[in-house]
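Hi Prof. W.,

I finally got the Glycogen debranching enzyme (Alpha-1,6-glucosidase) prediction working! I wasn't sure whether to trim anything, so I left the full sequence exactly as given:
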Amino acid sequence: MPERHLQPLLHDLVGVVHAPTSALGDTSGQIRSSGVQGVFHADARVLSRAELLVDDREPEAVTHGSAGPHGMRFVTLVRWLGDPGADPTVRVDRIRQAGPHGVTEELRVSSTAAVPVRATVSVDLGCDLAPIELVKSGGSGSPLEAKAGEPGRVQWAAEGLVVTVTGEAATVDAAGDRAVAPRLSWPVELAPRGSVTLRWRLAVSDPKAVVAAPPAAPDWSVPEVRADDRRLVRLLDRSLADLRGLRLTDPAHPEDVFLGAGVPWFLTLFGRDSLWAARMMLPLGTELAAGTLRVLARRQGTRVDPVTGEAPGKILHELRRHEFTLPAHELRLPPAYYGTVDATLLWVNLLHDAWRWGLPADQVEPLLPHLEAALRWLGEHADADGDGFVEYVDTTGHGLANQGWKDSGDSIRFRDGRLAKPPIVLAEVQGYAYQAAVNGADLLDAFRRPGADRWREHADQLARRFRAAFWVDGPYGPQPALALDRDKRPVDSLTSNIGHLLGTGLLSADESAQVAALLSTEALAGGFGLRTMSTDDAGFSPLSYHCGSIWAHDTAIVLGGLARAGFAEAALRLADGLLGAAEAFDYRLPELYGGDDRAALGRPVEYPAACRPQAWSAAAAVTLLQVGVGLYPDVPGGRVDVRPLAGPELGALAADGLRIAGTPVTVDVDRAGHPTVAGLPANLTLTTPPSVPAPRTPAGSPSPTAS
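And this is what came out:
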């Protein structure tokens, strides 16, 4: 039987990140030469081993916890030293901090013993410079020989990367067999109740990296939030700390910041992920959106290239240092890969939404030629067979077989479990396309550019075609199909994709209500969030990557659409599921987790290879906050709608420091659901639909009363 190369599990590992550097180790703090453990810089593993020993024995792990946004503290015991008796008297606290160019560690050895303590503390190292795709496929690189240089220093170098480890006052052993496993060591002598702090650091020089760390701190707002449901406060705090660590830039344009997709597999520019995360972060300011839009606009496609998937006007899928190859999956992606059907549409929609949140006109206007190019892609390249739908097919045989957000090879399945054959027409992509056409038309009109009528007509025709081709009979009544296959047959499984149609304008009011009802069924909503596929479908598996698992960003997008459309009960159920998952995962939501029933274990099941932290999962916390307070601005239109989800079910919720048009805004929703809004610029008017209590404006506030 041929050997199976399995992707390593990482659900039980502990990570720190300050992009483009991240580190993964076990719960004791050890970084072992196995699986995906190691220190990574961009797409390379720059340290494959860092094992702490005291007198050649491993300390015993007790606990670990956060040490700031980029750090972790591990508490271990050295019970063979110190006083005899049941109480441990010697411990080592290992504090690991990630930085943009490496990691540092402090080893704090402390004693409460009544007798002196003598020991030797050491750290065994290793480096293989394995590319991330080799690690992801279950492989590893050969250990490289280290070169000892100055006292306390050891170094590895290959392919332009230089990795240097320095131990302050440490002795280095890198001779003989230790050349591939060099050791830093320190003799330690502690007086009774004494302590000592030892330090070592890893530094990376990587001039060929395609991503870099931003030169300044985040410029998004960090709101002060008060909530009856404290889970939301804890989730937001942890998520914003994680997002701080995921920020990246293009080395040639360090002023433009975007979010890397996730640790460890995707810590680079991903069109779809970076766009969705920036869109979710708009309530905290438009700067991240502007940087993301500009970074992707610079790499917008200009020619037709089947190998890379590039086409004129198309937005990039992902950017790597070199070709990304997974032989077991017959996957071979070029460094700049355009195999995504939705990123171009999401780019248009982010530009529009950022404009609505107050992105200044002088930042929008330089992007309008890229908007027009993206719309031309929609009109000229997105519909290869001319049937009026946006579709995809990989013609190379080694690209992504599926090119929507559910991009695993088995994600597009009929109700009976059969795989759909490409070209594939995804349901949610038609919603994105409708919205992009309408949003693009609005931008063209606002900035007095031609062509708006063409795109509104394009949207109208797409809606008619969608209504005729996608609706099928399902176990809970009419439903939009997941997709159309090669023969234009509806792929009739019931999936979370249909929730992305809410708010795009593609659905009528009655159709939206039916979709909301479908999303509320136990088959989709019975877990800790929204299942990617219903339990009634033959392809369902709770630990399938895209056919039954739950993704935090997917749940957040859909509950946001439900809330905006007025389906509060359905939105609240998904919000509670997401908050329950957050609590179970120590408020660091992973990329995805199992779609098991809530009652099965009382907590979600880990998906063992999920990224954590992950950008759009962390940004989901901001979506929860936004729909909770219900703030929906239209700065160009001079209005702000307020439709809070908070109130009797979710409890009271208040946020100071949300941003609209660069101005800090406060929203306070009481337990009855009555909103109070303060701080709006004087040229914006508050509006509220009839079903929502009218907002109150505090005395002395510069914001106007509701109209």
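Residues 694-707 have pLDDT under 50 and may be disordered. Does that look reasonable to you?

Thanks,
D.
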